[in-house]
């Protein structure tokens, strides 16, 4: 039984990384620990077979089948877990295959029953049906964003990077169902057709099941397109009639109008984001000729004179730059290790309230300069380069999950959001404590470390970033996005206004101002995180606040005076 104790210890560690037992798909760092757990499951079964000294043919057969799947994972876990089909297969093995082991152990001796009980205690903490849904949505997302060939994908190949795992008819059916649930009917049709092509007689699904969904996908897809076209054609007419009559619309009409606007905006954003993430737009020649690369010292800053920063201009208006080698290799490793046990699923607002969201698939943690010299040095280096030495937030560290992404957003608030937060503060309810971080889809968590020792952090209440609540330190004046890992494919940062992507180059930071010098939001900074295709993406955000920078960025003559860094 000692091996099961070892598994439970591993699970406790893995859960610290995953943060939520039902959200394994949302962090690659957590999923990588599943490989160790899975390998120990296999070793446990081997010991069990020897110890029982009886015929366990069914269990041994199951073990042999699973061993074939696990060998490539154990041989190189980091490479294995970087492939989306492997990620899907790993979740699938735990959610659908390992869950059956308990039934195989029924009917044997008392030791078998004890092992079964311990096994079930462990399996409760591992991937389940909810993770399968998240994994299915991730495969649909990467296929859609990067226009992956369906034949290659189902055969385990993504941009010539292969996986030993394949997608069968049942997998395609599951992915198609997830697309239908999310009202992506064109994707549903693609995956249901593929499920039909791969279909072989089986118990789980029938050909009629597939055909039924395929019919619904086509019908709903046509209806959605017709509704959008009709809505766009009638929108101007309806607005004119409403203003002329002076009447009011019904609540139902308002709700339908709101839903249609949301659908159109979501589909439009998905299209634009996919095109930008795929690099379909290039920097125009007249812009490119004015972009420069050079060594930067921020007007002779003492620390930068000795070691200038390599700076590359990515765009002029708004001014977006990349700072190379801003984080050292040793610092990045310490930061990631400190963040691992504190990672929590990134939450946000949705129609269901505040909680888990599908538009941001990552886990985040917050690190204070006091946690480590590595954190402090990175913060100091960013302050030296930018000249922003006033108030700034803690360092947010993010690890992205399967096809991890984040929809288009601003890092600072719009005027409407500012007014909304202010109104909440005037209410004497539990909502009056809402922070700006709630609106920015972040969930704070805290840890502390006295030195560079990894693993010395401890869990604290979720109010670590409370000092940065709007009204205390002002808006997020600027963003420094630091890439902490190499990402083989995908995972870039897409900027919608210039239609450019910043690739996730390890050790570099992309920097831009969110506000004009006047304090008004620069809406040209709308950006998003492209889905991770191959690899494990780690990144960190350093947000600089208005407080303490009043004399660093003075207002220009015009309200929207150009937003340049130097």
The rough form would be described as globular
In CATH, the architecture of the largest domain is Sandwich
pLDDT < 50 stretches = 243-253, 427-463
CATH class of the largest domain: Mainly Beta
* CATH fold label of the largest domain: Jelly Rolls
The end-to-end distance, rounded to whole angstroms, is: 64 Å
| Helix-residue proportion | 40-55%
Q: What would you report as the Rg, rounded to the nearest angstrom?
A: 26 Å
Q: How many β-strand runs?
A: 19
Tally of separate helices = 19
Look at the helices and sheets and give the structural class: alpha+beta
Number of domain units = 3
| Sheet of most strands | 9 strands, antiparallel
Strand content: 5-15%
Summarize model confidence as the mean pLDDT.
79
Question: For this structure, what is the CATH homologous superfamily of the largest domain?
Answer: q2cbj1_9rhob like domain
State the strand order across the main sheet.
Answer: 3-4-5-16-12-19-10-9-6
Record the SSE blueprint:
Blueprint: H1 2-18, H2 28-52, H3 57-75, H4 77-81, H5 84-97, H6 101-105, H7 110-123, H8 129-146, H9 150-154, E1 157-158, E2 161-162, H10 169-181, H11 185-197, H12 207-245, H13 251-277, H14 285-288, E3 293-296, H15 302-306, E4 309-315, E5 320-324, H16 329-339, E6 344-345, E7 347-350, E8 353-356, E9 362-367, H17 373-386, E10 395-400, E11 406-409, H18 415-425, H19 436-439, E12 476-483, E13 489-490, E14 493-495, E15 500-502, E16 509-513, E17 527-529, E18 532-534, E19 538-545
Antiparallel strand pairs: 1-2, 3-4, 4-5, 5-16, 6-9, 7-8, 9-10, 10-19, 11-17, 12-16, 12-19, 13-18, 14-15, 14-17
């Amino acid at each position: 039984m000692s091996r099961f104790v070892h598994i439970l210890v591993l699970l406790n560690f893995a859960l610290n990384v995953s943060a939520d037992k039902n959200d394994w798909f949302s962090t690659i760092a957590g999923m990588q620990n599943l490989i160790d757990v899975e390998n120990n499951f296999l070793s446990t079964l081997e010991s069990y077979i020897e110890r029982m000294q009886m015929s366990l043919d069914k269990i041994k057969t199951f073990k042999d089948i699973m061993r074939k799947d696990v060998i490539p994972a154990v041989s190189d876990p980091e490479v294995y877990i970087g492939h989306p089909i492997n990620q899907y297969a790993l979740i699938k093995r735990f959610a659908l295959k390992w869950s059956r082991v308990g039934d195989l152990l029924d009917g044997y001796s008392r030791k078998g029953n004890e092992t079964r009980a311990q096994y079930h205690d462990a399996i409760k903490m591992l991937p389940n049906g909810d993770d399968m849904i998240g994994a299915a949505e991730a495969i649909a997302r990467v296929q859609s964003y990067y226009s992956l060939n369906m034949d290659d994908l189902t055969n385990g190949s993504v941009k010539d990077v292969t996986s030993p795992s394949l997608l069968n008819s049942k997998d395609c059916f599951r992915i198609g169902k997830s697309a239908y649930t999310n009202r992506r009917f064109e994707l549903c049709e693609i995956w249901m057709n593929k499920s039909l092509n791969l279909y072989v007689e089986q118990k789980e699904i029938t050909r009629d099941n597939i055909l039924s969904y395929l019919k619904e996908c086509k019908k709903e897809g046509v209806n959605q397109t017709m509704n959008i076209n009709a809505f766009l054609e009638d929108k101007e007419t309806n607005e004119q009639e409403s203003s002329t009559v002076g009447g009011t619309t019904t609540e139902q009409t308002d709700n339908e109008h709101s839903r249609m606007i949301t659908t159109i905006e979501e589909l439009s954003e998905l299209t634009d984001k996919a095109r930008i993430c795929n690099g379909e737009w290039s920097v125009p020649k007249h812009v490119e000729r004015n972009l420069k690369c050079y060594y930067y010292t921020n007007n002779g800053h003492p620390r930068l004179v000795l070691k200038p920063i390599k700076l590359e201009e990515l765009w002029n208006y708004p001014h977006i730059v990349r700072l190379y080698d801003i984080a050292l290799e040793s610092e990045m490793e310490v930061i990631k290790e400190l963040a691992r046990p504190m990672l929590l699923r990134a939450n946000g607002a949705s129609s269901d309230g505040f909680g888990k969201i599908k538009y941001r698939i990552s886990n985040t943690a917050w690190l204070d300069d006091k946690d480590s010299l590595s954190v402090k040095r990175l913060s100091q280096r960013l302050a030296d380069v930018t000249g922003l030495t006033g108030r700034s937030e803690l360092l947010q560290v993010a690890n992205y999950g399967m096809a991890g992404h984040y929809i288009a957003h601003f890092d600072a608030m719009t005027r409407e959001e500012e007014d909304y937060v202010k109104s909440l503060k005037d209410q004497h309810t539990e909502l009056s404590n809402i922070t700006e971080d709630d609106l920015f889809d972040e969930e704070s968590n805290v840890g502390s470390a006295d030195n560079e020792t990894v693993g010395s952090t401890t869990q604290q209440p979720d109010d670590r970033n409370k000092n940065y609540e709007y009204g205390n330190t002002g808006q997020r004046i600027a963003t420094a996005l630091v890439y902490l890992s190499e990402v083989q494919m995908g995972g870039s940062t897409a900027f919608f206004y210039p239609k450019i992507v910043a690739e996730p180059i390890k050790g570099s930071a992309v920097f831009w101002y969110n506000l004009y010098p006047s304090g008004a939001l620069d809406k040209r900074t709308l950006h998003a995180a492209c889905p991770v295709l191959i690899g494990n993406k780690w990144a960190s955000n350093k947000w600089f606040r208005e407080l303490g920078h009043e004399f660093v960025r003075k207002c220009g003559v015009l309200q929207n005076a150009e937003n340049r860094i130097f």
